[in-house]
Every structure is written in C-alpha cells, then in structure tokens.
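Ticket #404: bound-state structure for PMT.
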Amino acid sequence: MSAGLPRRVLLGVCGGIAAYKACELVRRLRERDIEVRVVMTADAGHFVGAATFQALSGQPVRASLWDAAAEAAMGHIELARWAEAIVIAPATAHLLARLAHGLADDLLTTLCLASDRPLWLAPAMNHLMWAHPATQANLATLRARGARVLGPASGAQACGETGEGRMLEPHEILEALAPPPAAVAMRGLRVLVSAGPTFEDLDPVRFLGNRSSGRMGFALAAAAAESGAAVTLVAGPVALPTPAAVARRIDVRSTPQMHAVMLEQARAADLVIAAAAVADYRPAQTSARKIKKQGGALRLELVENPDILRDLAALRPRPFLVGFAAETDALEANARAKLAAKGADMIAANTVGEGLGIETSDNALHVFWHGGEHVLARADKALLARRLLALIVERHAAREARPA
Ligand code: PMT
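RESOLUTION: The complex was predicted; output attached.
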C-alpha cells in the first residue's frame, strides 16, 4: 500500500446488525475517490441487500465463489490481487474464527487467504462473544499475523446489553485507514513511552498500586511505532502483549525502578510520552516478611517518590516532553498547574474514575501546551492515541522550527 489511503479497497461485509454502517463506509471511501468492491458473506444479506452496496460502490457485489458470470468478469484471485487493502466491517466472531484457522469456505475467506495485502478488521458482536477467550485467542492469532484490529467501541448494543463490541463508526474506520499526515514527521524519531501503573511493595505479598491497565500508553506506543518511530516502551505491571511494531519493551514494577529506566532511556529519545500512572508515594519500608495482623489500627508511613517527569525536564539536552494528568475534578486547573510545575511541553488531561479514562477501552482528552489547547473527543484508545500523536507531532515540529 502506498503512503496515505489505499486506492482500491475490498470491503468484506459479514452478517451483523452493524452491516448497515458498512453502507456509510462505502460512501465515505467513494467520496475520497477510493474504488470499492464489496464482498458479502451469505449472512450479510439478511441485514443489507447487495443492491444497496452496488449502488453506493458503483461496482457489482460478490457473494459467492460459484458465480460463473462474475468469475468470468474478474476471477477471485484477480479480485484478491486488485485490492490494495482488505477491510472487513463488520467482522463477526465467526469470521474472526474462520480467518484465524485459515479456512477458505466462502468467497471472503478465500480472498483473505489469497491476499498478502494489509487486512483491517472492524469487529462487531455481543460483548460476551467479544470477551470470550476463543474470540480473544483468534484475535491474538490474527494480530500476530499482522491484521490490524479497529475497535470495537463500547456502549449500548443492538441486543439491549451494554459493553465492548460495537463496531467503530465509519469515519473512525476511515481515519484509521488513512495514516495521519503527521505520521511522515514521526519517521526516524526516537520515542520513549511509559505505560501502566507502578506497584510499591509493602511486604512480599502486598503492594500499593492503582487501576491503570496500560492501554492508553500501549496504544500510544503502537501508534508511534506504526508511524515509523523507533519506540521504547517502559511498562509497569500490566497484562498486555507488546504491540507488534514496538522495537523494545522494558518491564518495571516500582516508581524508583521506572524513574531509573526512564531517565536512562530518555538520553537517547527525541520525544517522551509519560502515560504511566506513577505512585506519588511508597511505603517508607518494605517488610521482608508478611506483615502480621496485630489488632487495632495499622499505620503506614509513606515517603514521597521521585517525580519522573520533573526530573526528565531537567535533562540537557532535553527531549520533547508530553505528560498526562489524571483528575477526578478541576481537570483544566490541575492540568495547567501540572504543565507548569513539571516543566512539560504538553499535558494530556483525562477525567478518571467511575468507568472513565482508567481501566477502560476508550477515553477523552483535553490537551494543553504553552499558548494553546485542544479537546480530543471520546474515542477508542487506539484511535485517540493516533489523534493525540498527530497533535504531539505538530507541537514538536513547532518547537523544532523555533530559533534556539
Ligand atoms: O492505563 P489505562 O487504564 O489505559 O489508563 C490511562 C491513564 C488514565 C492511566 C492515563 O491516561 C493517564 O492519565 N496517565 C497518567 C496518570 C498519572 O499518574 O497522572 P498524575 O496526574 O498523577 O501525574 C501527572 C504526570 O506526571 C503523568 O504524566 C505521570 O506519568 C507523571 N508522574 C507522576 C508522578 C510521579 N511521581 N512521577 C511522574 O512522572
């Protein structure tokens, strides 16, 4: 695929209620002058008719391997070769399972197997089907083979339940397909990202920690790496696989460990994004033995941890620094105060708690820098990471352009 949008997209549509959104996706792709050929699974026809896709794409719609007239016009191997990218939206749990196992039992799966072009999957399904270990294992297999998974988002579902499994909106899929123009500016940049929580040990079995899942930081690391940056990811204790394009991952546990690694790695970084939820305090002492119940209250003495971001700001030469601010209230005031106090170039502020920002699959950000601000609306963390990165690249370029 050339830089920018693919010019010829093969759009696979599976049988799910989100198939209606695929119509809008075809329209938006056509608006960008992208040729679209739609291939429907047998079940997709229960939700949207082929005539709709045909009218929107201006091309015949294929649904079967055994359509002699269609095969005579453009055989399925030819069709696989024609596509610069394959996008499947919606991708059902059944389709993911078939792809993961390399089945070629209908036209769409056969085309996927006969193609080495980028494969984009926009899953849509019931939240329990999404969370099922079988689906997650299939996704892991597909990701490991290079498939890019877009979403899903969480929210109200057609089945009446709420959770993760809604297909991304067509404009979000389009945005994911089109690398942000700023991506060009990331090529060759050395980017250091921190992610996840820190754990401060009390004794061999207990620790003070926080709810950070690492998703925001991992999404930023993935987005930067996919945009051509050389990324080092410093991760607190999380249960996330390393994004495929990330060159290096260093796992740490406590704030002092993260502090040491970040300061060392930052010396070889052009840009640092501090998305980790770092503990401000740690126990004054870590007991070598399990602390016994003594009856009555137990007082813990906490000492202040080093401030990683502030210490990074004191480095000379100093990388471009992007911090986060996780707030439950007074988001803007606290974020502006952190921008000044920590000496960062930008602060991405998010409201956390009660299902927001932390431990979630989506987030919303209010980004501040000296002399400006920008709101990034609520979105899946992968998409939000790309948007934030575009903003970071813009600000970084502005700093580089300034006379020293
Ligand atoms: O991991 P997820 O579940 O996806 O959740 C994402 C997130 C909510 C954790 C993330 O978006 C986020 O907000 N990360 C920063 C959390 C945090 O520690 O915020 P803070 O306001 O306490 O700290 C401000 C900044 O200073 C942060 O960039 C932090 O990394 C940094 N810091 C904080 C304390 C410290 N001792 N050293 C630091 O460098």
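RESOLUTION NOTES: Residues 196, 212-216, 255, 274-278, 280, 305, 307-309, 323-326, 338, 342, 350, 352, 357-359 surround PMT (CB under 6 Å).
TICKET STATUS: resolved
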